[in-house]
Design a protein that fits this description.
Elements (H helix, E strand, L loop, with lengths): L2 E3 L17 E11 L2 E9 L7 E6 L5 E7 L8 E7 L4 E4 L6 E7 L5 E7 L5 E7 L6 E4 L4 E8 L2 E9 L2 E8 L4 E7 L6 E2 L5 E7 L5 E7 L5 E6 L7 E3 L4 E5 L4 E5 L12 E2 L1 E2 L9 E6 L5 E7 L1
Parallel strand pairs: 1-15, 3-24
Antiparallel strand pairs: 2-3, 2-26, 4-5, 5-6, 6-7, 8-9, 9-10, 10-11, 12-13, 13-14, 14-15, 16-17, 17-18, 18-19, 20-21, 21-22, 22-23, 25-26
Length: 299
Amino acid sequence: MKRTLLWASTFLSFYNCIAQNNTEIYLFDMKVDKGQVTLSNGINITNHQGYDNQPSFHPSKPWIYYTSSEDSASNDSSDIKIYNYQAKQTTRFTNTNDREFSPIVTPDGRFVSCVLQRRNGDQDLVEYPIDGSKPKVLINHLKIGYYVWASENSLFLFVLDDSTHYSLHYYQLANDLDTVVAENIGRGVNKIPGQNAMSFVQRISDTLSVLKRFDLTSGAVSNIIYTVRGKDQLTWLQDNTVLMSDGKQIFYYKVNPYIEFKDKKWKPVTMVGQVHKFKSITRLATNADNTKLAIVVSE
């Protein structure tokens, strides 16, 4: 296996990659008009005491895949569930003794990939056929915390090298080419819509992080903006707008892809109707046409 070190930082910090606190998923209607982002009609789509997290939209169907812990205190496994936001119905996608995290429909639409946390502590990347049958292992020699598909045969991986060291890998499945892009990264790894590029978060200190762009063609890394108060989870909209949260509010920033740090100011989204006072907002996800936004909050 080939391995190339492209970029590194000396700042290291520790935080738990997959922490199973009690969380819920809320779904909002979203409107993006003339650079303004408005959220409305927020509802709790999980309403389940336990861990409900890591929502991911199906690219063409009204489905949200997410990870959900078991109700029983004697069963510490977690499975993938599907919420149909048109029918307002929840179904189970997997039912295993392991723990599945971060479900994502693969670019070819034939599988649902996820991080499979095994009882021995391994965290492999696997894919389930869309009918939920037996999974196929894609990567099992790295301890993967988070990931995102860059193309049908390549991924960005948040890899736990050890308890205090995390690195970003650009992994090409066809030839097992594993390139280390950056170190001391955050959990926010994303595909940038409409570009042959990815984004990731570089942690500078406990309170300061930078959103960066990785060009998949040239391998060049460039800065975009400092993240919201050192946070590391985000989602992209189709018009080069980024959404992030400081834990209580959601903010947006319209990116100029050709100018680094053009405008450092994040703007709060507009909330209409009932205003929810959330304890802690973490993960964000949007559907393909940016009409829905799912957010993860602490119970």
